[in-house]
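Retro notes
What went well: the complex prediction finally ran end to end.
Inputs used:
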Amino acid sequence: MAGTRYGSKRMQELRTQILGRVVLIAVSLLFLAPIFWMVTTSLKDSSQVMAYPPVWLPWPPKWDNYEIAVNAIPFLLYLRNTVTICFFTIIGTLISSTLVAYSLAKIPWPGRNALLILILSTMMLPFPVTMIPLFITFAKLGWVNTFKPLIVPAFLGNAFYIFLLRQFFMTIPAELSDAARIDGASEFGIFSRIILPLSKPVLAVVALFQFLGSWNDFLGPLIYLQSNEKYTLAIGLQMYRTTNWVEWELLMAASTLVVIPILILFFFAQRTFIEGIAITGIKG
Amino acid sequence: MRRTKQERRNILLGLAFASPWLVGFILFTLYPILASLYYSFTEFTGLDVTGFVGWGNYVHMITKDELFHKSLYNTMYYLVLAVPLGFFVAMGLALALNLKVKEISFYRTCVYIPNIVPAFASSFIWLWLLNSEYGLVNLVLEQIGIWGPAWISDPKWAKFSIVLMAQWGAGGSAMIFLASLQDVPRSLYEVADLDGATPWVKFRYITLPMISPVILFHIIMALFGAFQVFTPAYIMTNGGPANSTLFYVLYLYRNAFNYGKMGYASAMAWLLFILALITTLVVMKTSARFVYYQGEER
């Protein structure tokens, strides 16, 4: 009896190991195939791009495509624009969202729960509702075609990050701030010298998400950036395409260049990503 | 009611620390909401309000504007396909990625990576993947003897192509499901094992109820995303062919920024807002019976 049960358990185990792996490998290949196709296309000669039968692995790889792609449009300028926006939005979010989260988590004032609900409810507001008046306002301020409409709002807090930070701050024991308060520390001192240093993991998550948010943003730059030299990569990539012709190998080379920094970031910051997912998961 | 000095101090401090968001809320949320509500009742070119039209914009879009109907239909079509499909794909992936094999973190990485590829980049990648003649998808289909459709160039397939493409990013939701799967107490499964429960019974009566709050959250966010689908259609098809991917927000964007009909676009935005709110409320109400919150009396 015991023997057969042990046996069936082993059999089941073995089935998971083999069948499971087959499924997992197939799924992984499926999810990586588009990236494979992007990279291989980026290394093809223009005649190989539309060759039949298809060229699966171009040999020798045409590395020149990258140089051509970078020079075909002001790629480096767009890169600089994108990085500038990313940099300032990260700074802005880190400063503003932490302050607001501190108010919600650590200062016992009567309106804070109502404020939290208000902040969370703004997340349910579709962007198109505010899009037009925002555009008009920024136009009147003369900010259209500058980075300001994309950067300045970050300095005024972001609902999602405020919530993430608040959840984290709540887990920091009150004894720490109380002790500092008795020693005569100001509220801002407690915030900047005690709470923030203890919050490095969640600050990293916020910085990472904000970076991805700005790097990936399409609609914002599309609306606000109108002249060529202000474009971000998200908008600039369309320049590889004219009305009826696409230079696929160049477009794929540029796409690869856009995706690579994110992949590198992912591999270096995998733990931060995982923490971020865990925190966002809790939201449910 | 008199407040003590300490209480007053806390209120001032609380407001001071919250002030960035309060300022941002008034300038960049509250004012724009009210302004767009006002614009929605006007004829507004972006420069001047040229007339107050009352419900005119709303009446026109509901009774006359065929492109509006088309765009609403397209977005609903997308939503009805993409939200359930997205749920099943993400849940399936989460279950697969929860298997106990040694190199599981490698598979998790593979599935997660596409989720962090920017939407604009994946739109370009899929534009090429779905190329009817030279795209990878049809080349692979051909290897197994299927003559693939023209995908995004075919009005009948274009919307579905965008639904399909969205599944490439399912790894993000899959990871959230995975995290919640791992939070289900082992002891529940052990008890079920003693009773000889099948895997399906365990999934249906333990896993699903335990992770139902996360599922509800996923569904609401997915609905919200689906209502606002824009980037893939803008980049890949620009609404075509034959307006088959003219999604709601794309048509709204065109009215606002290409046709200079900002009043009309504001009315569209408000209708979208109301539709999204109603949908969310309906989902929340109907799901109340299925969602189980730990620690809550039932």
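What we learned: Chain B has 13 helices and two strands.
What to try next: split runs per interface for comparison.
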